[in-house]
Amino acid sequence: MIKKLTFVLLILTSMASWAQESVVFKTKFKPNKKYKTQVKTTSYTEIEFIADQEIMDRLKSQGVELPIITESETNMSTDIITHELDKNGEFTATMEYGKMISNTTINGKTTTEEKPYSGMKILGKYDVDNKFKVDSIIGEKVSQQMRTVLKTTLESVQQAIKFPEKPMKVGETFTSEIPMTIPMEGMNPISVKIDIEYLLTEIKEGKAFFNIKQTVGLDMSQEQLNIIASGTGAGTAQFDIKENFLTKYQSELSMSMTIKINEKMTMKMKSTTTSEHNVVIE
Fold first, then answer.
1. Residue 161 reports pLDDT greater than 90
2. Strands 168-169 and 132-138, bridge-based pairing
């Protein structure tokens, strides 16, 4: 009898465990919270030109040292403070930006820049659908153009990752696509897209863990002649189920591009970018 009871308990425990492994992921901000975010991005880029000797000599005479190697690191911190839930199911919030410092080294010469977003405050409100609406942007160094871009970005990009609406189990995947524009000095910006696959690897202690695969390709919806782009990346992510929030995200993405500038010159670029995104919720 005891053996049978033990067997039943084991089955029930296993069933409970299986049930817990199916989760609906939905990112949302909650009232009366403080979201402290730290973001660090580093990149290494190497640019080489392929051209006839006359052009290469001309570049050299102009002081261009090849390959052009650029290393950069940007650190940013933000605090999002949310307030009381009102009778309409909405709550106000304040976004406070800490110092945003960028260090850039080009062929051994380093410059440090504090971005104009440093010290900026954004006041707004989360509606019943958890969408943020900007009321005002406070910052002495923030231009009107930057304010417009910020307002549009914050109100249109509500979630870092768009999770599937159905429950997920360990071993299941979903994909998302992120467009990216790469500015090029003296040329039109290059449009690429990053296809990202998320694999749910584990659920334990109220956290969900994902492995990430990234694939880069040229945005074929844009007319971009004489350009080849490709790349791959990998990373991990961690989701706090109780808080309904992505609290950790790490990735490394390698990308290469070949751009035929004209019949006599081709530019080749290789880059590696690492990102670390950590959130503490109080």
1. no
2. unpaired
